[in-house]
Design goal:
Distance between the termini: 30 Å
Shape: globular
Radius of gyration: 21 Å
Strand content: under 5%
Largest sheet: none
Structural class: mainly alpha
């Protein structure tokens, strides 16, 4: 981690500690994305971790609040802390504040994220995909837009923004499919009610399947349609990979492949997501990311060797 912080030009013990903590959060909670970030240049990784770490911290306020705390009050506190983030003086989120400053990130992207997080406190289901899109824009698409300056583009950022937004949406829709059972336990159904009804599915049927640990044929058909819709969003997201800076493409392409791989695992499990959490096997993750990871590590070792050699020469 020290080498990454050095490469990114991050100095000061407190700031380095904050970035290190963000990296730990990413590694613990977002294994797929964390593996993909290993393919970024070392100088870019801390900033991706900082953005992920903030999003995860806010998500925890809503989904796993500390005993005796009020999630709404917690979100109010985060909103107030964003003022400090954008003034560059945040003690609560110093790594985020530093990342925001370096990449000139827009406040509106973070405000939209908080609005969607607030929706989770009161909204328990959505009628249509159009209704759900209001939520996914703030909960996921804006995170793709936050990451875009870190990844960099080969031309104007505006051209890559639709695909960056689709990237976040695709990942979020996959989360909804993977976590149907867990979300039910929280009282939420993200799959739109009208779409489920087209296959004869409603909340009561989902809850019954969860309780009895079975998957009804109607549920399988509804989930299959949702998987197909999700894959279309991945296709939109992939169009943006060539628009990214060349050194960032392996990271994003790998994240897309691995996260879409969750859909493959859902299909392989015969859509049994109400009673289990499907994951992409470690062997597949390594098969997808391994070659690029070895290449990046080799380049970094070569660069460090050159740096050491240059330092020795300068001393003679």
């Amino acid at each position: 981690m020290s080498a990454e912080l050095d490469a990114a030009g991050i100095h000061g013990d407190q700031l380095r500690a904050a970035y290190t903590d963000a990296r730990r959060i990413n590694a613990h909670y977002g294994r797929t994305f964390f593996l993909a970030t290993r393919l970024l240049p070392a100088r870019a990784r801390p900033f991706a971790h900082a953005l992920y770490g903030f999003a995860r911290a806010v998500d925890e306020v809503v989904d796993n609040p500390a005993p005796g705390t009020d999630p709404a009050a917690g979100l109010d506190a985060v909103a107030a802390q964003l003022d400090d983030v954008f003034s560059g003086e945040s003690t609560e989120f110093p790594a985020l504040a530093d990342t925001v400053r370096r990449f000139d990130l827009e406040r509106s992207l973070f405000d939209a994220f908080l609005r969607s997080m607030r929706m989770d406190l009161t909204v328990t289901e959505y009628e249509t995909y159009a209704d759900l899109a209001v939520y996914t824009w703030g909960s996921a698409s804006v995170i793709g837009l936050q990451m875009l300056p870190v990844f960099g583009t080969v031309s104007g950022r505006a051209e890559a923004e639709p695909s960056a937004a689709a990237l976040g949406e695709a990942f979020q829709l996959t989360n909804f499919l993977r976590d149907v059972g867990e979300d039910l336990d929280r009282g939420r159904v993200y799959l739109p009610r009208a779409e489920l009804a087209a296959f004869g599915v409603d909340r009561a049927l989902l809850e019954s399947c969860r309780r009895r640990q079975v998957t009804d044929a109607r549920v399988r058909r509804a989930l299959a349609a949702a998987v197909a819709r999700n894959r279309a969003v991945y296709r939109r997201a992939r169009r943006g990979v060539p628009l990214l800076r060349k050194e960032s493409r392996p990271c994003v392409a790998t994240a897309l492949t691995l996260y879409e791989g969750i859909l493959d695992e859902i299909v392989a499990a015969d859509y049994d997501v109400l009673n289990r959490r499907v994951v992409v096997p470690k062997r597949r993750r390594l098969a997808v990311a391994g070659p690029s990871l070895l290449r990046v590590q080799g380049l970094e070792l070569l660069q460090r060797a050159k740096t050491r050699s240059a330092a020795l020469v300068s001393k003679t």
